[in-house]
Amino acid sequence: QVQLVESGGGLVQAGDSLRLSCAASGRTFGGYAMGWFRQAPGKEREFVARINWSGSVTYYGDSVKGRFTISRDNAKNTMYLQMNSLKPEDTAVYYCAAKVPPSSMYYKDYDYWGQGTQVTVSS
């Protein structure tokens, strides 16, 4: 079992940066694969990035590749999403999620979810 809480969202201008955090309360955080997803009103939940249990392997959705970086610190029970060169189309609620390994890009594969944090990018 793991509980997740996102933070770090906010309102920024296009081209700016944000770093999101996902804090976990479970004892076995290091044993889970993790992912970030986002969802705008009226749209399907979209894959953003995933990371394996150790943090050594990452993968990104095409829309954020080259701009976003996913990472994790198992000693701190925390996962991060560094977002650079933000665009208005990045506006969404961002969710962190966890699953038993291996990692996945499909939201239906994930067992645990945070409450989400709002990211709004103005033009």
Question: Please, could you describe this protein's structure?
Answer:
With 123 residues, this protein is mainly β. Helix content is 0%, strand content 48%. The protein has no helices and 11 strands. The chain has strands at 4-7, 10-13, 18-24, 33-39, 46-51, 58-60, 68-73, 78-83, 92-99, 112-113, 117-122. Strands 2, 4, 5, 6, 9, 10 and 11 form a 7-stranded mixed beta sheet that branches. Strands 1-3-8-7 form a 4-stranded antiparallel beta sheet, with no helix packed on it. The chain is globular. The model has no long low-confidence stretch (mean pLDDT 95).
In the predicted model, the low-confidence regions spanning at least 5 consecutive residues are none
Structure classification:
mainly beta
Termini separation:
40 Å
Q: Count the helices. How many?
A: 0
Major beta-sheet overview:
7 strands, mixed
From the spread of the alpha carbons, the general shape counts as globular
Order of helices and strands: EEEEEEEEEEE
Average pLDDT number: 95
Strand percentage lies at over 45%
The radius of gyration computed from the alpha-carbon positions, rounded to a whole number of angstroms, is: 13 Å
The helix content, as a percent range, equals: under 10%
Task: Please count the beta strands (DSSP E, at least 2 residues each).
Answer: 11
Summary keywords:
123 residues; mainly beta; 7-stranded mixed sheet; 4-stranded antiparallel sheet; 11 strands; 48% strand; globular
Describe the secondary structure blueprint for this structure.
Elements: E1 4-7, E2 10-13, E3 18-24, E4 33-39, E5 46-51, E6 58-60, E7 68-73, E8 78-83, E9 92-99, E10 112-113, E11 117-122
Parallel strand pairs: 2-11
Antiparallel strand pairs: 1-3, 3-8, 4-5, 4-9, 5-6, 7-8, 9-10, 9-11
